[in-house]
Every structure is written in structure tokens, then in C-alpha cells.
Write a structure and sequence with these properties.
Largest sheet: 4 strands, parallel
Strand content: 5-15%
Shape: globular
Structural class: alpha/beta
Number of helices: 7
Strand order of the largest sheet: 2-1-3-4
Oligomer: single chain
Distance between the termini: 12 Å
Radius of gyration: 18 Å
Helix content: 40-55%
Order of helices and strands: HEHEHEHEHHH
């Protein structure tokens, strides 16, 4: 991670034009069985996997607060809202581009998307090479089988498997109007949108590998220059 380096070490890497990967997550409820850090854990794991495949990638500290207003009412959810997230990302990237010419924001929470897109649009209008990666995979909308499998593959000791139970299992399109009006609590008493039962670490590891490959390929398309080893 970039925070493990000293400023002279970071400065020495500038000529190699490293990519700074910024994990952007959230601190919010993920049902009675997953930790509040689930979205941040995924974003960080994607960046870690990317750095393992591409030696020109450095990882920034995780942005662990996002726009999680839809989870209001569930204890532990800490949301800064869309406007604050947008401003945070804009100012962070303005600072980061003094050192890093290429930045990729790796998002782990769907509620962040609009704010991140606005931030990237503004930053790119300022001629800053900032990109946004949004993981794409099928599955339950929130704290269901996919996210539970991912967390099991990352840190099984933090998953309360005995508490995993289905929440609202109707298709997202069917519950979306009520969800937008009243948040997750209006449609799911336990905060789960889907069914986490049956999740496995093996399934999560396979999905994570697929997402890292997806991210790595996206980086290759954005910045096709040859990868150079930049580790000090």
C-alpha cells in the first residue's frame, strides 16, 4: 500500500507512472450475519488482487464512508451522503494527481455510484486521468448469497453463518418504488435483499477472481502501456 512507503520512495516511483487504486466502500448494515465493513472489504480485496497482477499498481487507504442513506435506521450504519462523498473524492483526487497521473476508483457500494460518477466527470473535465470501476455480477441485491460468499472467501471468521437468513427475496424491480421511498428497512426487516443461505467460500473465491480479472482487463483497456515493475 502507498501508506507503507516514505515520501522519497513514492517520489522515486513517479517516473514509472504508477496507477493509484482507491478502494471506495461504505460502513453500513449487511444483515444480521455480515460485518458493517463488507462493501469496503470487497473494494479493498479487488485492489489487492489487481496489485498482485499488475506491479504498476499502488493501493490507497480505503474510503470507508459512503452514501448509505437507504440503510438509515439500522444501527451501525455511518453515511456521509452523496454530496459529501462527491466532494471528498474530488478533493482527494485533486491532491493525488499531484503525485499520480493515473487513478482508478474501485467502488464496492451501489449507493456511491451517482456521487462517484459526478466526481469523475468533474475531475476529467479538469484534465485529470481518473477512472471509475464498478463491479458487475449477477446475484442478490444486498447481503445475499454473492456478498456472503465473497466475505466467506475473504475472512470466514467475520461471517455469522448461524444468523444468515433470507430477507426480501422478490426481484429488485418489483420492490424498487418502495425501496426508494422508505429505504431498505421498508422492505426488509433484517436488512437483507436476497437469500444468503447456501453461500460458500469457494463460490466467493471464484467470483472474486472473476471480478479481479474484469478489473485488470478494464485497466488494460484504459491504459494499454506496457506494465513496468515499480516496487521499491
Amino acid at each position: 500500500m502507498v501508506v507503507d512507503l516514505t515520501w522519497p520512495e513514492v517520489g522515486a516511483l513517479r517516473a514509472a507512472a504508477p496507477v493509484l487504486a482507491v478502494p471506495v466502500g461504505a460502513t453500513e448494515q449487511h444483515g444480521p450475519h455480515l460485518p458493517l465493513s463488507t462493501d469496503s472489504d470487497l473494494a479493498r480485496a479487488l485492489c489487492t488482487g489487481l496489485a498482485a497482477r499488475r506491479p504498476d499498481v499502488l493501493i490507497a487507504p480505503t474510503v470507508s464512508y459512503g452514501a448509505s442513506g437507504e440503510h438509515a435506521g439500522f444501527p451501525g450504519t455511518l453515511s456521509i451522503g452523496q454530496a459529501a462523498l462527491e466532494l471528498l473524492i474530488v478533493e482527494l483526487c485533486r491532491s493525488a494527481t499531484e503525485t499520480f497521473d493515473r487513478i482508478v476508483l474501485v467502488n464496492g457500494h451501489g449507493g456511491n455510484i451517482e456521487a462517484l460518477r459526478r466526481a469523475v466527470t468533474l475531475l476529467r473535465a479538469e484534465s485529470r486521468d481518473v477512472r471509475l470501476y464498478l463491479p458487475r455480477y449477477a446475484g442478490d441485491a444486498h447481503a445475499g448469497r454473492a456478498e456472503t460468499s465473497l466475505q466467506l472467501s475473504l475472512d470466514p471468521g467475520r461471517v455469522r453463518t448461524e444468523r444468515a437468513e433470507p430477507g426480501e427475496t422478490r426481484p429488485l424491480a418489483e420492490i424498487l418504488p418502495r425501496l426508494r421511498e422508505g429505504g431498505v428497512g421498508a422492505v426488509s426487516a433484517n436488512g437483507v435483499l436476497g437469500d444468503p443461505t447456501g453461500a460458500t467460500a469457494a463460490e466467493g473465491a471464484e467470483l472474486l477472481d472473476r471480478l479481479v480479472s474484469q478489473l485488470s482487463e478494464q485497466i488494460r483497456q484504459w491504459w494499454p502501456e506496457p506494465v513496468e515493475r515499480i516496487r521499491p
